[in-house]
Design a protein that fits this description.
With 315 residues, the chain is an alpha+beta fold. It folds into 2 domains: 2-237, Metallo-beta-lactamase, Chain A (4-Layer Sandwich); 255-314, Arc Repressor Mutant, subunit A (Orthogonal Bundle). It has helices spanning 39-50, 68-71, 74-80, 93-97, 99-107, 111-114, 200-211, 229-255, 262-272, 285-297; strands at residues 2-4, 7-14, 17-25, 29-32, 58-62, 85-89, 134-136, 141-145, 148-154, 163-167, 172-176, 184-185, 191-193, 217-220, 226-227, 260-261, 301-304, 311-314. The strands form 4 sheets. Strands 1-2-3-4-5-6-7 form a 7-stranded mixed beta sheet, covered by helices on one side. A 6-stranded mixed beta sheet has the order 8-9-10-11-14-15. The N and C termini lie far apart (53 Å).
Length: 315
């Protein structure tokens, strides 16, 4: 779908959710995200060919953050467009390059202490290892055509190096998974996933940064595009979700003298958000753990020494 002249949203479904990539077409052709391993061959390249664009013309592939459904097709893009530069946030580089690193350091880093993980071997959807050529830190500009470029924004929280792109002339922000509202929806509007930010204070700083921009249209990795007041409401829902989780965790720990484990606190969070589905319950490990780290750093709770699983209690 053409969002506006020279900018296309490429759409497919993944586990019932929308999965979007973005194609910027000018003197150079820029692709943002590559989906899962099969997305380039089944979705992206056919879409480009319908537009009359040879995939070999790709000049750059920008991966917004390390996740299977955003980087899984990188190696397939590299094969068809070997001259294209691949880029991501500098602090995410190792996980974007290497699916094994992605699973070890992102999906399973809480396994030993809390018994929650997402499989020891990368899913086939994660694709193959693919070198990253450029590490962005935010503040760079990517040229699409003479006099037309995209600003690279560093928008951490969901990952430490998460990127967004801002077309200032249009007021269009392409933020992928930087902001989560109350959770990630399925195509039918039901909830597919809980919020999955990792770093709470960074996530809030990203919300503040985006709220400070003159954004007229917001395009994401999974949520339908938003305009005007929809953007304000989405940001407000995102901030409110953080506040609700903080309060629920503190309230739960205040009632439990012996402390609570991460698993128990995930269940507390799901009581607060009953539309978070049971099938993706464990994904809530990331925000809940992030809140625990934040509250511990603030001196509001403490970890109880002892053998795993780790427990926290109120101060």
């Amino acid at each position: 779908m053409e969002l506006y002249k020279g900018v296309h949203q490429i759409s497919s479904l993944y586990g019932g959710r929308y999965l979007f990539q973005y194609l910027f077409v000018g003197d150079r052709v820029i692709l943002v995200d590559s989906g899962i391993a099969e997305t380039p061959e089944k979705v992206i390249f056919p879409h480009m060919e319908r537009l009359g664009i040879n995939p070999e013309r790709l000049a750059m592939l920008i991966t917004t953050h390390p996740d299977t459904d955003h980087q899984g097709g990188n190696s397939a893009v590299r094969m068809i467009a070997p001259g294209a530069l691949t880029a991501c946030g500098e602090t995410d580089r190792q996980m974007v390059q290497d699916p094994e690193c992605l699973y070890r350091d992102r999906y399973n880093h809480l396994q030993n202490d809390h018994g929650i993980g997402f499989g020891s071997e990368p899913s086939p959807d994660a694709g193959n290892r693919c070198r990253v050529d450029v590490g962005f830190r935010g503040g760079e500009h990517v040229m699409v055509a003479e006099g037309r470029d995209l600003e690279v924004l560093h928008v951490p929280g969901h990952s430490s190096g998460h990127l967004a792109l801002f077309d200032r002339a249009r007021g269009a922000a392409f933020v992928s998974d930087a902001v989560h509202g109350r959770g990630c929806p399925n195509k039918d509007g039901s909830m597919a996933l809980p919020v999955t930010y990792f770093h709470v204070d960074l996530y809030l700083s990203t919300l503040a940064q985006l709220e400070g921009l003159a954004i007229k249209e917001l395009h994401t990795g999974h949520w339908p595009s938003m305009y005007g007041d929809e953007i304000r409401d989405f940001f407000s829902d995102s901030r409110r979700t953080v506040e609700i989780l903080d309060r629920r965790i503190l309230r739960a720990l205040a009632r439990a003298q012996a402390g609570l484990t991460l698993n128990q606190l995930i269940d507390e969070a799901r009581e607060e958000f009953p539309d978070w589905p049971t099938s993706t319950r464990d994904a809530a490990v990331f925000p809940v753990h992030g809140h625990l780290e934040r509250l511990e750093n603030r001196g509001q709770i403490k970890a109880i020494p002892g053998a795993p699983p780790k427990r926290w209690q109120s101060l």
